[in-house]
Amino acid sequence: MIKKLHLKNFTVFEDLTLEFKAGVNLFIGANGTGKTHLLKVLYAMVTVPQEDKTPIGRIAKVFLPHELRHLGTRTKAEEQSKIEVGTENNSCELKFNTIPDEARVSGIWRDEIGTAVFIPVKEILANAPGFRSLYHLRDIPFEAMYAEILDKAYLFPLRDLTAQQDLLLTLQEVMGGKITIKGEQFYLSDALGELEFMLVAEGIRKFALLWLLIRNGCLQKGATLFWDEPEANLNPSLIEILVKVLLQLQRQGVQIFIATHNYVLLEEFNLQKESEDAVRFFSLSKNEQTQNIDCQFGDDYMSIMPNKISEAYTKIYDKEVHRTLGDIYDLE
User: What's the domain range around 165?
Assistant: First the structure.
């Protein structure tokens, strides 16, 4: 389990320390405040091979900077950068200079972290045929997560699916069928036959990927799930089910990190979580005086400030009321 992250002079973060819950950790904030970067740096750090002594190369594969110096903050690109990830009993640290290109590592590397899964914003299952071979042969501008999530999606199912049965049935009801794989092509199989993924709604393909990852054992106790904007292309009416599944996964021992802009998703977590569930909300914002990224956190969604999502919905509500009541509302 990931307990702590410390970033210094890394992308938009001049100096930031975060402490995480064992269950679900949700990041909100305006565009450019580093939500996706937090998911990426954690994923990169916990997927460095044990024998790899140059984890900066792993960071580069996940972030794809044109130049290594772009991984430092833009105002202090020549200063040393630091990434430290702590688990319950150990920590691993990466320090690097972008000018000159030097890196140093210390600590025990990811010995307490199980399978790590990163689901990017762009859906990839529909474009899966041939993608992995292309990725490994050509220098194409896709972060490592795209090929790696396909590697996991293609895994064979577990023999014993008793523990996963309820979750799989819930997802099958949403999809209206099961997923089958022929060669490198994914299909939605229902009572009418097989439908190739390019013809399946993208929101349904999100549930399909989750179904595959649960069925093949990638999301079992000890695993870590990073999901960037799970609400993208998903009808709000389905978010309730998505949150139900994610909360159940954390009850089974999966640690989850989510970056989101969606009010419904956040409120569903707030409303569905039970007292024993470990859920934490993080609000990232730019300090107008220092231009640094600050972070406030809390275990209740409505308690975190600033909250750009809540502010946007309040503004819409005010506009609707004003349109209905006009000057009467202004007098109030």
Answer: 125-218
